[in-house]
Amino acid sequence: MTAKTRAEKMEETRVKLIAAGRKAFAHKGYADASMDELTASAGLTRGALYHNFGDKLGLLAAVVDEIDSAMAQKAKDAGDAAGGGWNGLMAEGRTYIELALDPEIQRIVLRDGPAFLGDPSNWPSQNRCLQATIATLGELADQGAIKSVDIEALARMLNGVALNAALWVATSDDPQATLHKAISAFECLASGVLVKQEHR
């Protein structure tokens, strides 16, 4: 059996810490999660956490990035299944908002994330979503399907609406009821950019 390289061992440690952090943050919340408990649950030490992430906040950032990136992938898959283009873009938005019903996503990404990591629009995962939206809107603009407006500005607005809708769902007293209102409003606002409603 081949011995693991240093890089492989480091990556394995990172994966273990992110998994342990994800579990602890989901069950106890970021503020109440103990570094000693979460590192011990991974069979590691605080030193390993400090070495890989700097501190507990660095671990939260890595956990949020992993979950938010997975949310974006699910949204993209829904968009692809809807055939891409405008229908795909709307499917992506709906899916992202619907994921706010997931308790783990609610607590880690949509509650603790903004509370401890600040403005989500500055997160690396959100920036990757923005670039994908810009690309799709650019294609729609080339096809003459949307009104003439700055593409980056439009992408930021659409992504912002979807993100804030998800935040609303996650923090509401009745997430399921709020979901339907949020999606309807998202689609209503987004449709205003279409040159013709029949493109929907």
Automatic annotation (TrEMBL):
The keyword DNA-binding applies. SUPFAM superfamilies: Homeodomain-like (SSF46689). It comes from the Bacteria. Residues 11-71 form the HTH tetR-type domain. Residues 34-53 bind DNA. Keywords: DNA-binding. PANTHER family: HTH-TYPE TRANSCRIPTIONAL REGULATOR RUTR, HTH-TYPE TRANSCRIPTIONAL REGULATOR UIDR. This is TetR family transcriptional regulator. It comes from Thalassospira povalilytica.
